[in-house]
Amino acid sequence: MVGTNNPTITNPSSRGVHKSGYMQKNFTDAQIAAVYRHMTRSDFHNPDTMLVLFSFGGQVNAVAPHATANAQRGSVFKMCFQTFWADSADDAFYVGWARDIYEDFFASTGGVPVPGESFDGCYINYPDNDVADTRHNRSGVPWHTLYYKDNYARLRQVKRRFDPTNFFRHALSIEPAGG
Questions:
Q1: Predicted confidence band at 1 (pLDDT cuts at 50, 70, 90)?
Q2: 84 vs 94: CA distance, rounded Å
Q3: Distance (Å, rounded) from C-alpha 11 to C-alpha 28?
Q4: How confident is the model at residue 58 (pLDDT cuts 50, 70, 90)?
Q5: Contacts of 37 (CB under 8 A, 6+ apart)
Q6: What is the DSSP string of 24-41?
Q7: From the UniProt record, which GO molecular function terms apply (predicted)?
Q8: Is the residue at 105 inside a domain?
Q9: What is the CATH number of the domain that holds 144?
Q10: How far apart are CA 164 and CA 107, in angstroms?
Q11: What is the pLDDT of residue 11?
């Protein structure tokens, strides 16, 4: 990855966490304050931490939300909090830091980027089990809506057709449709 200090390029065994959100508007003052507060914590000194912003919009948004699995077609950019570390003994600290910044950043919508006027859910290529955990996702919006919006029912039909026994699965995988 050119332009980042992503340590997985030189050390593929690095540990890391990613937490994403599709943004339909610029950051609010409260969100900027949250980023500053967590990035400048006196106990946090990790140069392998970043807020990555990906341009979005344009022709990406010209595709209908139901045309592909990715339904986020109204965003102006996608953002991702990332941090990487080497020692498994530090997992709780770094995962905790990522949870704190993310939940603070999306405090107005229950700790996650609920699709609506300002946000448009999460990016599935950064699967985040916390969005399925009510201790971290206090929005009442299910994880699959954050990732797939209204496409989840159709994706469950596809899953039933190609993987009816749910052999290929993980914590946030699409469940096959019943019956």
A1: very low
A2: 8
A3: 35
A4: confident
A5: 104
A6: SSPPPHHHHHHHHHHHT-
A7: flavin adenine dinucleotide binding; oxidoreductase activity
A8: yes
A9: 3.40.462.20
A10: 37
A11: 63
User: What is the count of structural domains for the chain?
Assistant: 1
| Domain membership flag for residue 174 | no
> Looking at the predicted structure, is the pLDDT value of residue 2 above 50?
no
What is the reported pTM?
Answer: 0.90
Query: Phi-psi bin for 58: left (phi > 0), alpha (psi -120 to 50), beta?
Result: left
Alpha-carbon distance of 178 to 119, in angstroms, equals: 31
Averaged confidence pLDDT in the chain: 92
Domain limits at 91? 15-154
The reply to whether 34 falls in a domain is: yes
What percent of the chain is modeled with pLDDT above 90?
80
C-alpha to C-alpha distance for 131 and 89, rounded to whole angstroms: 24
